[in-house]
Amino acid sequence: MFRELLSALAPAIGFSVLLTGLAWGEPVVSRSNAPDGQIHSRLSALLGQERAVLGAIGSQEMRKLVRPPEAGRGDKPFSYDEEWLAAQPEATGDEQFRCLAEALYFEARGESLKGQFAVGEVILNRVDAPDFPDTVCGVVKQGTGRKFRCQFTYTCDGIKEVIREPKAYERVAKVARALLDGAPRGLTSGATYYHTRKVNPHWARKFTRTAALGQHYFYKPPVRLSMR
């Protein structure tokens, strides 16, 4: 079991873990009349190696490794439909969950279910991208404090964020919870930008449009070619 764990974790922590034959081989019981001391020593060494590996992994990487392939805490498998969403329990979570739920409320509460998931995808795609902060709250609040120069308008438009539609928030909170629990991100083809159909920002002409869902267009930045 430890061998499989290390094989899965090694890429995430950026180095190869080299273990002795003790870790990779099958347990060997001494043929002496008193093997307990040797077994205890070997188990202690093995557990020490496991603690060292787990301690080297950041919390973000650990969440990605243990994240289930698909979300669905109810009896029904994940689906982009209202019946599935209604079957999910009330959504709760930590600060990262609240940042995502609030972003979906202020950015996409009037969207269709797929539209809300798509906006959530962009936020999580940014978390995974090297050019953005590596937490949900970091992505959502990037640029906050500079009026109309933030990444998500509601955080810098000068209007106090007040949730006045609790039912709408309850809905987007379930979407946020599903995404954080591992719902598939296949609606936007990895988009890290979007804008509403009502505007036509200058950057959109240079980016690749990946999807059009509800009132939003979704984009990837152009591929950067390195010169050798």
* SS field, number of helical segments: 9
Query: For the terminal residues, how far apart are their CA atoms?
Result: 44 Å
The strand order across the widest sheet is 1-3-2
Shape: globular
The arrangement of helices and strands along the chain is: HHHHHHHHHEEE
Report the average pLDDT across residues.
78
Helix content: 40-55%
Give the uncertain stretches in residue-range form.
Answer: 9-34
Total number of distinct structural domains: 2
Which percent band covers the strand fraction? 5-15%
Instruction: Let me know the number of strands.
Output: 3
Largest sheet: 3 strands, antiparallel
- Rg: 23 Å
Structural class: mainly alpha
Q: Could you explain how this protein is built, in words?
A:
- It is a single chain.
- This protein is mainly α.
- It folds into two domains: 2-65; 76-220, no CATH class.
- It is built from nine helices and three strands.
- The chain has a three-stranded antiparallel sheet, covered by helices on one side.
- Strand 2 and strand 3 form a beta hairpin.
- The longest helix is centred in the first third of the chain and has 20 residues, at 36-55.
- The radius of gyration is 23 Å and the shape is globular.
- The relative contact order is 0.12.
Please write out the topology.
Blueprint: H1 2-13, H2 21-24, H3 36-55, H4 59-66, H5 82-86, H6 95-108, H7 113-128, H8 136-140, H9 166-180, E1 193-196, E2 208-213, E3 216-220
Antiparallel strand pairs: 1-3, 2-3
Helix pairs in contact: 6-7, 6-9, 7-9
